[in-house]
């Protein structure tokens, strides 16, 4: 899945606000449009971490239809994919930990998009769930 969500930008005299219909907890802003959109990526990771924390599936992004998009980085995307794969498989942190030779706390950190992890470890966890990671590099918008 591509973790890139269309955002709405509201410009006012006192600054710019960015929100996301697909991820209601994403609310951020800045003095300029560029600053607000830059902050939207960090706000997106934080907002999606709430889904992980609550054990809920990550929402699917809607079509952008020309709207700007906020995206998560590669590491965070793999962590979110791991979270969803574990939910789909009905696998707990403890059970995945047994498969990987890790404790529950380590697996919890692998799922947390706000915690630093080695992407190779997250990829190994995804492989244990029958998933693989592909990277697609494209021109910046």
Largest pleated sheet: 3 strands, antiparallel
Uncertain stretches of 5 or more adjacent residues: none
Number of strands: 5
CATH C-level category of the largest domain: Alpha Beta
What does this structure look like?
With 141 residues, this protein is of the alpha+beta class. It folds into 2 domains: 4-71, 2-Layer Sandwich (Double Stranded RNA Binding Domain); 74-128. Helix content is 45%, strand content 14%. It contains 5 helices and 5 strands, in the order ββββαβαααα. The strands form 2 sheets. Strands 2-3-4 form a 3-stranded antiparallel beta sheet, with helices on one face. A hairpin with a 2-residue loop joins strand 2 (8-12) and strand 3. The two termini are 19 Å apart. The mean pLDDT is 95.
Supply database-style keywords.
single chain, alpha+beta, Double Stranded RNA Binding Domain, two-stranded antiparallel ribbon, 3-stranded antiparallel β-sheet, 5 strands
Summary of the model, kept short:
By secondary structure, this protein is of the alpha+beta class.
What is the topological layout?
Blueprint: E1 4-6, E2 8-12, E3 15-19, E4 27-30, H1 33-54, E5 69-71, H2 74-89, H3 93-100, H4 104-111, H5 119-128
Antiparallel strand pairs: 1-5, 2-3, 3-4
Helix pairs in contact: 2-5, 3-4
